[in-house]
Design brief:
3-stranded antiparallel beta sheet, Transferase(Phosphotransferase), domain 1, 656 residues, Helix Hairpins, binds adenosine-5'-triphosphate
């Protein structure tokens, strides 16, 4: 590591004795005294004040300069009020606003300006253009959202950025309110709203809003897409997960974490707590299981995971063996069936209930809700759209997959209807509510083979119902079949007809035979699944670096400027800790030629990646007072980071 001979100094942002300031002081006579500007006259005019007290004598160049900004040569550092065009307000109306009074009087904009990663120290040479300026008093704008207006990243892969001609980050800073964002306090979506007033007292996880609705759009970098980027330039959108996918995942995560305060539901059901109802209607419906059933999301106190609990209201267990039949279901492992974890009876609901514990799939819908208008307030008036043939084939192959697993394990689905098939992702379905009839109809005399044949018929009927977009179409089978024949290809129609004839006691009527018959469709569904897999892998790779970089930034922030070591020169102002501190400035606090902050994610990512890799590339680090300069490699910074972090973790360190 090479460094200048001068030892590192304290972080003295307001260095009063800089050569630049002296030069300016010599020119004081050309500068209009600030007291004249603010108060109309200067009390020290005849007592040695070096500044000009006659506005008429101030040369035009200086006047123009004064219009732009106050400078350090002014005798008084108290900011005055400027009119909208930047000129001082006449004395009569001059008062110092509370905002201006409480503002930090001066903020130096030190031009480190070493944006290129060469070892040439360029920072000092830029001083000519650097100015001490009165801190602008700005309204608070939530930080982080600015990223939403960032359009593109400049980055050429080797960390060299050419900011002069094109800085995509200097785009419009649209006020938040303009995007319907969080401009005012009253609409802050993160404000806790215990009354539910803002959300309309959301109730159902699937149907209503959330107690504290998350404003997904605030996460979305909705800045303008720049079409004219060069091959090496990257857009922020290129670096992170696609917005719609991220939003979908975020919504699912919000639904999973949703809680329902002041609920009348039991606080605890066996080893589950935090129940949230998932049903869209309060109507008791015993049609499927013979008992009214309710579905809740709940958290397990055993493993902390979220599950769906299906409660069969009023069920009394008379035969111990009945509930043991669930054991076989717990072993079923299929991507097309909602996994069953447990079943038990409970009195937590003040009745005798049977509870099934299954996987929870946030924000899923049933096929009945999706295609048949179930759960819709305007049910009946709903104009359901025709399901395209390819989607119907997709459903068919997934259900065939589920039945194949069940039948080869000597089980039968028994429940195969649109309200008990869950749509858990785009065109992705799973059989739900299986295993229940094995418990509640344990004593039924039907053989497994018989139940499996019934599965095939139910399968066919489900397809016809979906194809007709009408829940009750099977009341008139002939009409239903006519419709199906008209709407779909002969291959699909023949497959469905084959299923509907499944009750014939024919050796050839098994799910295996059916699967052989639709093998070409299986291939096309399989191919779609492979494409989706590729897509997800590529999406995942975009997020690859995030975790690593967050950990690195966490380490840096653990070390830098710890308040308890503020006056401990050994910790903060010497050796490795010191250049870690100015490395942070190098990464995050650079300014450009005109003293404006460089907000370049490409630069930050490039620096952090090099730091993490411990590259041999050297960079020039310049102290804030510009009195010291280090030429260090990323490798050395990495070593310093590691040893500082180790030192931080030693509990005895402070004793020294
Ligand atoms: N495992 C699960 N994970 C997430 N949500 C589920 C799960 N099981 C059911 N749901 C949701 O719970 C709601 C109620 O499901 P249910 O199976 O009772 O259907 P339903 O439309 O109410 O039918 P029914 O009128 O026969 O009760 C549906 O919106 C469904 O999407």
């Amino acid at each position: 590591m090479a460094s200048s001979s001068k030892p590192p100094l304290d972080d003295t942002r307001r260095t009063t004795g800089s050569p630049k300031m002296k030069t300016r002081a010599e020119n004081a006579k050309d500068t209009l005294c600030r007291n004249v500007t603010i108060y109309g006259r200067c009390r020290y005019e005849d007592k040695g004040c070096a500044f000009n007290h006659d506005p008429l004598k101030v040369n035009t160049a200086n006047q123009a300069d004064n219009k732009k900004r106050f400078n350090v040569d002014s005798p008084s550092f108290t900011p005055s009020i400027l009119s909208s065009n930047g000129t001082p307000v006449p004395k009569k109306s001059t008062t110092i606003s509370p905002k201006a009074a409480s503002a930090a009087p001066f903020q130096p904009r030190v031009s480190v300006a070493s944006r290129s990663n060469t070892s040439t120290p360029t920072g000092r040479t830029e001083l000519g253009s650097a100015d001490w300026t009165v801190a602008d008093v700005q309204e608070f704008v939530p930080q982080g959202f600015d990223g939403a207006h960032v359009s593109a990243l400049q980055g050429n892969g080797n960390g060299i950025h050419t900011s002069a001609s094109f800085d995509p980050f200097v785009t419009t800073s649209t006020p938040l309110s303009a995007t319907g964002g969080v401009g005012s306090v009253s609409t802050n979506p993160y404000t806790h709203d215990p009354t539910g007033a803002l959300t309309g007292g959301a109730f159902f996880a699937n149907g209503g809003g959330f107690q504290q609705p998350v404003q997904y759009h605030l996460y979305a970098p909705i800045g303008p897409h720049n079409q004219n980027t060069l091959a090496y330039q990257r857009n922020v959108h290129d670096l992170f997960l696609a917005n719609d996918f991220r939003e979908e995942l975020q919504k699912k995560s919000a639904a999973t974490l949703q809680t329902l305060p002041n609920t009348t539901l039991p606080a605890q059901v066996d080893y589950f707590h935090s129940l949230v109802p998932l049903d869209l209607s309060h109507q008791k419906n015993a049609a499927t299981f013979g008992y009214p059933s309710w579905v809740y999301k709940a958290q397990s106190s055993k493993d902390g995971n979220f599950y769906a609990l299906r409660r069969l209201e009023g069920f009394r267990l008379t035969n111990e063996k009945a509930i043991r039949s669930v054991q076989a279901w717990k072993r079923v492992c299929s991507g097309s069936i909602v996994t069953i974890h447990d079943a038990f009876t409970s009195r937590s609901f003040q009745d005798s209930s049977l509870i099934f514990v299954t996987d929870y799939h946030p924000l899923s819908k049933t096929l009945a809700e999706q295609h048949l208008g179930a759960g819709n307030r305007f049910q009946g008036r709903q104009n359901n759209t025709h399901i395209p043939e390819q989607i119907l084939w997709g459903y068919m192959t997934q259900i065939a997959n589920a039945l194949k697993t069940l039948h080869s394990n000597s089980l039968a689905a028994r429940v195969l209807e649109a309200s008990k098939v869950l749509l858990t992702g785009k065109n992705r379905i799973r059989l739900n509510g299986c295993a229940i009839l094995d418990v509640v109809q344990f004593d039924s005399q039907r053989t497994v083979a018989d139940l499996q044949r019934q599965d095939l018929v139910n399968f066919g009927q489900l397809m016809v119902t979906l194809g007709a977009n009408s829940p009750n179409v099977m009341h008139n089978p002939t009409k239903a079949m006519e419709h199906f024949t008209r709407a779909y290809s002969p291959q699909l129609k023949n497959s469905v007809f084959w299923l509907l004839n499944g009750l014939q006691k024919d050796q050839d009527r098994t799910i295996d035979v059916f699967i052989t018959g639709i093998s070409s469709q299986l291939m096309s569904t399989f191919d779609s699944a492979l494409h989706l897999d590729d897509q997800l892998t590529s999406d995942l790779s975009r997020e690859l670096e995030n975790g690593r970089l967050v950990r690195l930034m966490t380490k840096l922030n653990f070390i830098n400027e710890r308040p308890e070591y503020e006056h401990d020169r050994q910790w903060a102002e010497t050796g490795e800790r010191y250049f870690l501190k100015i490395f942070r400035d190098y990464v995050f606090h650079q300014v450009d030629n005109s003293g404006d902050a460089v907000v370049d994610l490409g630069h930050v990512l490039s620096c952090l990646n090099k730091l993490d890799a411990g590259s041999d590339e050297k960079i020039t680090l310049i102290s804030r007072d510009e009195q010291s300069c280090f030429i260090v490699s990323y490798k050395e910074v990495k070593k310093a980071l590691e040893s500082s972090f180790q030192a931080l973790m030693k509990p005895t360190r402070r004793a020294h």
